[in-house]
Amino acid sequence: MAKKKKTAPKVLRPHAEEAYAEELKILAANDEHARPANWRLSPWAVVTYLMGGKLADGTVIEPKYYGNRRLIEVAVATLVTDRALLLIGIPGTAKTWVAEHLAAAIAGDSTLLVQGTAGMTEEAMRYGWNYARLLSEGPSEAALVPSPILTAMRDGKIARVEELTRVPSDVQDTLITLLSEKLLPVPELGMEVQANRGFNLIATANDRDKGVNDLSSALRRRFNTVVMPLPASLQEEVKIVQTRVAQIGRALELPGEVAPVQEIQRLVTIFRELRSGRTEDGRTKVKSPSSTLSTAEAISVINSGQALAAHFGDGKLHANDLAAGITGAIVKDPVQDKTIWLEYLETVAKERKEWKDLYRACKEMLD
Questions:
Q1: 91: CB partners within 8 A, 6+ apart
Q2: pTM for this prediction
């Protein structure tokens, strides 16, 4: 009896260049604009890939970023030059998402990533060693283990550094020579690695988290900075949440119905009002909690609610499915934030007739 062929498990989160391989292929085929050295697409096509649009052959490119087109044009124009790009903003403003898609569109490879942490050492930015070979053979190029940044320099690709302000200041400054001279010295071997054309670096940073390390003025000068804003309007933020929730739901194969737009609107309205310190109509002032209440957190709350509805409900997203996620996102400080959330429920949510179910569900979570 013949054995059944095993099917490969699906990747939980494919890289951008894999998830959107077909779009990138079509864009490349339709791209008649000039391409910088080692770029897979022209700057025009990269912006079209991120912002979406309709090509001459009728193909519709799905938007990856909803916001100001000019910001993305500035980011892409920066990467055409020899200046590195710094995307800065509060958590949840799509910095990582944009950085990944820029690397995928420009270099066809978004995997050359250094994740910034408080305990990071210089080796993560520069290079390390295969200690078995180092002990047996001594220092050699074969024993050298390149960092993602060093690999990007050799291959003429885009490297990414996430959460740069989480990295200790002395480790941050290892980037100064690399970005200004476009080379990385390897003194142990008496050599240096020079960057090939096409190399550049995209870093992300925020100034809201605890443990932030400010960038030195010398390092800041090596970057062009693009500030990533929160969505400008309620409708824009609802559209972002709706799109990403649908994409993630398909990837996770969540059963049940698509999240109703009215539930997304209520959630986004709550987050926006608590962030801004006033209701959408401007009539009532409210206190803001310590949590950031970003668009990314709104997406997470909806996905969590959908999972509850699918596995422990009737498959439809209701107020009681959202209540736990909303409370968890808002109440980070069990004393201060809980008081602020209760006050919002009593002064704002309770007064909205169409919010009665959500008001009761959230109150039950706090009792």
A1: 206, 208, 209, 292, 294, 296
A2: 0.89
Q: What is the pLDDT of residues 314-363, one digit of tens each?
A: 888 899 999 999 999 999 988 999 999 999 999 999 999 999 999 999 99
Report whether 144 contacts 185 (CB < 8 A): no
Is the Cβ–Cβ distance between 189 and 139 less than 8 Å? yes
Locate tokens 């988290």: which residue?
209
Any idea which residue has 């959500």 for tokens? 358
Could you tell me if residue 121 is left (phi over 0), alpha (psi between -120 and 50 degrees) or otherwise beta? beta
Cβ atoms of residues 157 and 17 within 8 Å: no
Q: d(Cα 320, Cα 336) in Å, to the nearest integer?
A: 23
Written as six digits, the tokens of 240 are: 């972002």
State the CB neighbour count (10 A cutoff) for residue 31.
19
